[in-house]
Amino acid sequence: MHILTLVKWVPDAQLERTIGEDRRVERTEGVLGELDEYPIEAALQIREALEKSAPETTVRVTALIMGPDGASTALKKALQIGADEGFHLDDEQLAAADIYATSAALAGAITHIHKNHDADSQLLVLTGMASEDGESGAVPAQLAQRLGGLAALTQATSLTVESDRVVVDRVSGNTRQKVAAGLPAVVSVTDQANEPRYPNFKAIMKARKKPVTTLSLADLGLTAIAVQSKISLIAAEPRPEREAGQIIHDDGTAGTQLADYLEKEGLL
Description:
By secondary structure, the protein is α/β, with parallel strands linked by helices. It contains 7 helices and 11 strands. The chain has a 9-stranded mixed sheet, sandwiched between helices. A two-stranded antiparallel sheet has the order 2-3. Helix 2 crosses helix 5 and helix 3 (99-117) crosses helix 4 (139-146).
């Protein structure tokens, strides 16, 4: 079985974000997205469960990332957590890609990787619920469609693989659902699904020897037109800093002061 996890290099939330001349967040510093650790952990748990129940089963976990050179740091973290191999899609034509272009490029990469490395294995593609920088959550469904109309099971709070199908628990509104689909399939994993493991020193050292393959659009047989974004960013500016709230001291007129404030702000 081949479990392919998608990961992303995102701006470090601990650092101040700067918008560059191209109206986009400068990514000189980045990390593996926290939400991408959950699909990696899910893949590792599936592998452990399958290899325990059927020792003859071989499960390969790979991590795929799309981004510039700096994205390799996030891919390295995915290998330290436990992925067996990494693939880095790095092409200047993909700079500032929107979700349309992103899903097209990633679908091409997944097809290429699976065809050339594990063509005879069942394929399960795992993603995070969203990325911390884009937060659209739309890529998994688009990806499933581009991969030949695969089933897209989104917002999974738990998942297991049973024979040739994946079973997912998910929450939709105020309803809990259990759904299943045959493999191959695409599943987006939420931050409620598990508790990602922290790589120890042994895992960090082991990751240094794991293979990483860099891919370009040409390697995938894709042209720049095939991954051309549909959306253009025409303006971007930092959000205004939050102003300090007004403190009301209760000297016996706190209720009146609060009512006056709410009326002033148009909230009454």
